[in-house]
Design brief:
Length: 270
């Protein structure tokens, strides 16, 4: 009954890689068509590191559903249950919570996303994930709980690694996502993804995900193909944030300007 497949519960859980495009700058929902044309599975709507309003996030998430892609929304840190509920009511099929460092925090994240008896989310009858259809209350709650309210937690601190087994064991947590930038920074080795200490942390997340049958996700590395090969094919990453709209625009603009500069004979050199 949901508008589109939730690849976290289907493709990723079956062992296939899901590729996400991160949107944090572009607000026009037509950008989703470019993402679909490129062959992505997921539209990741970034609200922690953007100025998106809930309305703008809803438009992007709804466009993703209509295009047949799974919309995932990362909410701001400690935004509260009311904010999370609005994001879910308006189109997210998975909410990602930043900076989760304990099992207790992971349990609270699940409670925010699930209708009773699994959580404390308030029940509203028109849900974007089921196309705003009128449905029997219990049927709608069961459908959204099971297919359109996945929970992702960001593993971004050394303390998270210490507690990663307990976090992965939390019932209702579907995905553990390593944030490479924040985790390496918190470890005192910013950006050093090949450091033994950092690679050991990723291995610990991989082991925990496999032990509790959770999806392993990765964010924050968009260029190092060897590293991506290792995390996908050795560690078992099944959700990868492949790139960010603002990064693509920035890099593309610089490459274009540099390319034109190579044939520019109008510049006067003193």
């Amino acid at each position: 009954m949901v508008l589109c497949e939730n690849v976290i519960y289907t493709k990723a859980s079956a062992g296939q890689l899901c590729k996400a495009m991160v949107l944090r700058l572009v607000t026009n929902p037509l950008v989703v068509q470019f993402v679909r044309n490129a062959g992505f599975d997921v539209v990741w709507v970034e609200m922690e590191h953007s100025t998106y309003s809930i309305t703008e996030a809803s438009m992007l998430a709804s466009a993703a559903m209509m295009a047949g892609m799974t919309p995932i929304v990362r909410v701001p840190y400690q935004c509260g249950m009311g904010y999370v509920q609005q994001v879910l009511d308006s189109g997210a099929m998975m909410v990602v919570f930043p900076h989760i460092v304990s099992a207790a925090e992971a349990k609270e994240a699940v409670k925010m996303c699930k209708f009773p008896p699994y959580g404390k989310r308030s029940l509203w009858l028109q849900q974007a994930a089921v196309g705003l259809r009128t449905m029997p209350m219990q049927m709608m709650a069961d459908e959204v709980n099971s297919m359109a309210s996945a929970v992702g937690v960001m593993i971004e601190a050394e303390e998270s690694i210490i507690n990663v087994d307990a976090i992965a064991a939390v019932d209702g947590v579907d995905v553990l996502i390593v944030g490479c930038i924040d985790l390496s920074s918190d470890m005192g080795i910013p950006g050093q993804i090949d450091a033994p200490k950092f690679k050991a942390a990723l291995k610990a997340v991989s082991v925990a995900c496999k032990r509790y049958n959770k999806v392993f996700g990765l964010a924050g590395n968009y260029k190092d193909l060897d590293f991506q090969d290792w995390v996908i094919n050795t560690l078992g990453v099944r959700l990868i944030l492949a790139h960010v709209d603002s990064n693509l625009i920035s890099v593309g603009a610089m490459e274009c300007a540099e390319r034109i500069a190579t044939i520019d004979r109008t510049v006067v050199h003193n």
